[in-house]
Automatic annotation (TrEMBL):
Pfam family, one: ATP_bind_1
Species: Streptomyces milbemycinicus
Keyword Iron: no
The protein, known as: GTP-binding protein
InterPro entries found in the cross-reference section: Gliding_Motility_GTPase, Gpn, P-loop_NTPase
Coiled coil: none
Protein keywords: GTP-binding, Hydrolase, Nucleotide-binding
Domain of life of the native organism: Bacteria
Family per record: Belongs to the GPN-loop GTPase family.
Length: 196
């Protein structure tokens, strides 16, 4: 078989391949994962939200999240093109402990995780961070500031969440595209630095 020289089209295709990166958006119940993915997705996001029933009222802790009427029961999905070469596929996990079995499948092929935390309910983040670490995913912390939540320093957050010094910590408002994009960019840069 005779090999032919690479054409301009071959070179263009080789140099312009899009890389798809699977990123998990995780966090405890009612921290804003569905909102975050809806804010960031360039396509209509896939949502598996269902109305919360009276039966769930005895299982899900609704303190601090009054007015919540729906919850994710499988996953959320969105897509975000960061550049001509990099596309992020965002997978949001359910936050309740009873859906933890979904995590094993969702972590397959994921490059990392953005862990959303509520500054008013930091203790609820421990189980989520433990799961992310159990599956060996590098992660960044994004503190989702809701209306009227206290602002805490990075040092306070690091100590409260027992984070390693290299773990990135950023703040965002899951409803705000600019601050949410900054959180994702922080995670992507962290993943790139680790890959070098």
């Amino acid at each position: 078989m005779v090999s032919r020289p690479a054409s301009d089209e071959d070179v263009y295709l080789r140099n312009n391949v899009q890389i798809a990166a699977k990123i998990l958006v995780v966090g405890h119940f009612a921290v804003g994962k569905t909102t975050f993915i809806g804010t960031m997705s360039e396509i209509p996001p896939l949502r598996t939200e269902e109305t919360m029933t009276q039966a769930a009222a005895h299982i899900d802790d609704l303190r601090g999240v009054q007015g919540k009427t729906t919850t994710t029961v499988a996953m959320d999905f969105g897509r975000l093109t960061l550049s001509d070469r990099l596309v992020l596929y965002l997978f949001g996990t359910p936050g309740q402990q009873r859906f933890v079995q979904v995590w094993e499948d969702m972590t397959r092929g994921a490059l990392g995780a953005l862990v959303l935390v509520d500054p008013e309910r930091l203790k609820e983040s421990f189980d989520v961070i433990d799961l992310v670490e159990q599956y060996g995913l590098p992660y960044a912390i994004s503190v989702n500031h809701f209306d009227g939540t206290p602002v805490r320093s990075d040092d306070e957050l690091r100590e409260a969440l027992d984070l390693l010094p290299e773990t990135p910590v950023v703040t965002c408002d899951a409803r705000d595209e600019k601050s949410s994009a900054n959180a994702l960019i922080t995670l992507v840069r962290y993943l790139q630095d680790r890959a070098r």
